[in-house]
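go over both lines:
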Amino acid sequence: MSINHNNNTDVADGLAGLQQDAALWQLRAARVDVKNFLQGSDVTLFEPIGRTEFGVIERHLIGLRVGVITRSDAIVERHRAALNALGADAAQVQAVEAGAHGELPKKIAAALRFSDKITREPRDASPEDIAELKASGFVAQDIVTLGQLISYLSFQVRLLAGLRALGGAK
């Protein structure tokens, strides 16, 4: 989903199921810059431009895993649908949902273990976790991207919880 300046929608509206006639949608629409920055972050993280060793499918696998861990149905559905549309390996998708990282290629398994730790117990992260990512084939730029991706997904989970608490999200 790309930034759409005409109708002021963003990925959060879609995840939350907000309709344009809802008071909460209208409140969010009044903050055009916030919505555009949020959408820009989503596009940057899930539609990277240029060469990257940390591909779009891998990024959506991380999104799926974070959604599963946090029990965020909207995030799970979004990333499962994206993975299906991208033609991701169905066995890998199932392994990610089940937390069966040992059944996955070394690099994505390391990224998922890191994602699990950062999502569940971020204070337990250590230099050894970064070393494992490097040993599995991650370069510094992609380790930073992985950290940004996990942080962004965590933000989305909190944003959706806040929208639900305000009574506007599904």
In short: Residues 53-161 form a domain with the AhpD-like fold (CATH 1.20.1290.10). The longest helix spans residues 140-165.
